[in-house]
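hiii, so i know i said id send this last week but things got crazy w the move. better late than never?? heres the sequnce for the chain we talked about at the cafe, plus the structure i predicted for it. fair warning i was half asleep when i ran it
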Amino acid sequence: MIKKKYSIILAIIGLLFTSVVLAIPFISKYLVDEAINIANNDTNYYKLVTYIIIISILTLLAVIIKIIDYFLYSHFYVTLEYKLKNQLFSSITYKKLSAISSFKSGDIEVLYEQDIKNVLKTYLSTIPQFVRQISRAFIAIILLFILDESKYKLMIIILLSIGILALIGARVYSKIIKPHHKKVLEADSEASNFFIESFNHHKQIIAYDSFERSKEYYDKLNLNAKKEKKIRNNILYTANSFMYGFITIIYTICIVVGAIFIAKGIYTYGVLIAIIQLINNIEAPFINLSGLINNYNLGKTSEQRLLNVINLDNISNENEINDFDSIKIDNLSFSYDNEKYIINNLNMDINKGDIIKIDGPSGIGKTTLLLLMMGFLNPNNGNIYFIKDNNKYETCKNRNLISYLSQENILFSASILENIYILTGVKDLNKIEEALKLANIYDELMLMKDKLDTKINNNSGLSLGQIQRILIAILILFDKPILLLDEFSSSLDKDNEKIIINNLLSLNKTIIYITHRNSDIKNKILKIE
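okay and structure toks below
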């Protein structure tokens, strides 16, 4: 999902920074010892000044490397965040409706807001930090080995024992914490889903006086998320506390041993000061280890969640033909649950230029038939084909021939012009004006303050009838030979409906439509029973 080069670059910079920073306590040993020598009446300041200059240069170099590190991290983060969000949007946009419909809006929001951040943090922070911390401990142990002049290298044995125990503990901890990260993300998604849906369906909550009931249900979901987070955090903080306590005890032992060695003349003051600083640089990585493992597992869980969406099947858009002679519904059957068939063995031939009304009682499968034609659903048996020169082509693979108007009267939170461009790609104002006139909405929009630049936020400021007519104008602008209309006039008054129907008929398109109204359109009937 993210190339390893970003982690490698930041890890190398971190390694350089660690090397420079650890050189400071190593040189400080000689600085302190030289200062003590001068205090004992040695008047040679040359070495002291030299060590001061070296430490100053190392400090300045560390600052420069850190600035570069921050700059590259920021640059990589912003760049990759942009790419990942675009990748997620593109993936969702090109997926089959049947595949993507299993996700709720809250799931997608968590993917967009949380999971992408977790993945970025893993690759740009956690992995480089892990390399940095391991190298920090390793280099510190090497320097400690050089400085420790005791016979049995007691300090090294103690600290290596810590490292071995920490790695074993990290392995066990990783297996324990990983499933809890998944549970937390799933619980958050459920609570987020209901939160967003409650906002979107606020009218229903008011209409059914369900304030307390909806709050009770959300509280149940939120409480579950709280419980999962509490379990995960208890494991996390228990591991951190245990590691901190263990390291603190070892640190105290090292100080005591160092003091004894000074008393016996094995260590100088400079050696002890350097060793203490190096021990700090050894204990810190082990204290941070559980946190890094936690972040890594969280990032990997989020990465898998994103890949689960990205790897879904893409919708077919082959566009094999640019025209057709007829449409053939061939022994078509469909069931949502593979038990009860909504459509069963349906057959019909539709010629180019026909006006077809799909008829039947509510819930019989009229809208389902249009969804099958668009390829939003897959039939259990049979298929729908375009016939061209006596050859069959699946309609779902040739949506370039279809303009589809669904039941949902929804526009994006953008201006009217931006909505038109997003859905049709048309920028020509003359064409847009003509389509809006055919949809009998142009004059009303021109009376608005911002006209076609009017912003649409949750469809506010426009009536359902106006939104429906804008969508009809968009349908016209898309300019395909076949119009699929699902309850296209449900929010229109009789006068508007009559004008728009006549304008649509004048386009000489093949029209397949669903309506529960009595219509004056002369058409063939496709009855679903």
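btw Residues 105 and 197 are 8 Å apart (CA to CA). thought thatd interest u
miss u guys!!
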